[in-house]
Amino acid sequence: MKGFSPLDPLLHSQLRLAVMSLLISLESAEFTFIKEKTGATAGNLSVQIDKLSTAGYIEVIKSFKGKKPLTTCKVTKAGITAFETYVQALKNYIE
Amino acid sequence: MKGFSPLDPLLHSQLRLAVMSLLISLESAEFTFIKEKTGATAGNLSVQIDKLSTAGYIEVIKSFKGKKPLTTCKVTKAGITAFETYVQALKNYIE
DNA sequence: GTATTTGGTTTATAATATAAACTAGTTTAT
DNA sequence: ATAAACTAGTTTATATTATAAACCAAATAC
Prior knowledge:
homodimer, alpha+beta, 3-stranded antiparallel β-sheet, 3 strands, 20% strand, elongated, DNA-binding
């Protein structure tokens, strides 16, 4: 019978999962790009990126593109591992 | 690029997803059985079953086993469809 | 009889997600 | 040069969700 191992609550969120999914396939991405691709509001995205960053799942790099502030996100080793673990756990639920 | 179609919030919950997963493979199951398999507390399970039932994803049948109350859950057609849709959407995030 | 267990439900609290309001600075138009 | 509108976010407040604690009624065990 199935195991139903716990699902990392940090990843079990539509927006955070989408962000991680994007970052894993792209290595790194800009805030505005992620915002577009996910359709999230800036506020929500800012909060969720902060959570992923605090958890050490992503790295947030603040710089400037010309004179405008630029926030770039990059997935970390820990983030990739967590994502893979989450996906494996999920499979117990959906297969 | 990936689509990130929305994930049915009713199914995007660890416990409710586990309940649906169980019911889909077993057709129907008793409250106590689901409680054991999922490791949920009775209170939490009661609430989540109620939500799935209100949504029409499961049918809840109340009867008696001898003299004790017996709650049996059965997945509905709508529930199966919703689950399948959820799984397809999820694949955009995790593949 | 009374204490405990079974099979739950209801209600309260904690956690999360989301949106609205705000900050700081830039570009554009007048 | 200054006001209006835009970019790129952050902070804070609110709504929603998840979870747990407290409760209830009946049955069984002592």
